[in-house]
């Protein structure tokens, strides 16, 4: 085989997720390329190696490849006279370096830098007919990497414009090439996961099936397994645990074989959830510990934060409330140190701590009164703040998704703690507030609180600010009491204070969101 044919074979191996064989082949070509004195082929080797290292999270290798590529390109850029062949080589591998730099920044959560290099890649150089297809591929692939990285940091709103650009490409008929199929598989899988995490389950399924079918036609085993894993998350979110179990068990062998730590961790997470669902708590704790270990190896604080909360549910079910509290405290420390944390994450954390206190109160009736009060001070403000998000979403379907996948569970927990506390005054205020607000329903299947931490839905239909909570005047219909936005203060009786005023004040203090409109109060008595 020629060197060029071997380089093409290495590319096929990498797309098939056989990175070890691809790497060995590329390294074996270096002596032949040096002997031939072909810097263009050496640049191709480093570009492909950089992509392999990026996929396998071997970031030191990415840095080394980028350094060698830039050193080589710098030599040619400094030449006083360059022919067209050299100009094309510089243009091509400058773009390949920009792609690697974009993926590297995105993988490290440096989303601003990733956006800058993506823009530079998109606008790089004059059009070259011979390089147009490769340039388009690099741009779309880089957008996928940036969008996936944003979703990993719960920045789904910021990822939406990228996904729209990706969909414009992968929705069109492909040309049947390796690169076109790779974009469909990567983009379809990534966008399917985005849809699951934002509650768009019906939209996720077709993309995941299409990506899976294309991966199977290429005999890309890992890519096929990854689509099955995302379909398992969708099934879990929909409450279909038998299907989720079947899919994650089908996906795991290929994922484990290729040792992708992030996907391995996600498999172990669902194995743990399945064990919790049948009361096998020792087995669940072991499985969740495997997920935590892999995420710690990857250095992903946000995922470690979530798995600690999940493991604390196992402690709660065992009645080991001290251990659960330690895990929740450790999870809060990770969130405090996470530079891109949001008020929504803290609201969910407070709600979870309230659930821990609620379980402790139910287990110890003697101290239940004070404990229920502390639980209510955590769960009710968090529920009020989170539920307010849906009244900032103009689209009815978006409001429904938010209510179904996020606020319903938290509101149900707020009502439950007031009921179990025996605080009829608080319960009546919650009912009064909710009747003025509208209604909520718990998802079919009665998904338990511990199950919802696996796929956390986020708002994506309000692009101006993440989870913006409306305050001030809302939108009202003519002659109608229906309004979109924060409610004014509600007073149930002439001599009483506005309902839930203390809990609303706590929500403002903790989460920085104004939950009450500034206009005149509503009197709710006849």
Question: How would you explain this protein's 3D organization?
Answer:
The protein is mostly helical and 526 residues long. Among the domains are: 1-152, Serine Threonine Protein Phosphatase 5, Tetratricopeptide repeat (Alpha Horseshoe); 342-526, no CATH class. It is 71% helix and 2% strand. It has 21 helices and four strands. The chain has helices at 3-15, 19-36, 39-55, 59-77, 84-107, 111-122, 132-152, 156-170, 178-197, 201-217, 221-237, 241-258, 261-277, 281-298, 301-318, 321-336, 343-363, 368-388, 396-421, 424-437, 501-511, and strands at 475-476, 483-484, 490-491, 522-523. A two-stranded antiparallel sheet has the order 1-2. Strands 3-4 form a two-stranded parallel sheet. The protein is elongated and about 90 Å long. It comes from Mycolicibacterium rufum. This is Tetratricopeptide repeat-containing protein.
Q: What is the helix content?
A: over 70%
The multimeric state of the shown protein is single chain
Q: What's the number of helices?
A: 21
Distance between the termini: 89 Å
Strand order, largest beta sheet: 1-2
Low-confidence stretches are: 442-447, 461-481
Largest sheet: 2 strands, antiparallel
What is the SS-derived class? mainly alpha
Overall pLDDT level: 88
Give the CA-based shape: elongated
| Beta fraction | under 5%
Protein name: Tetratricopeptide repeat-containing protein
Organism: Mycolicibacterium rufum
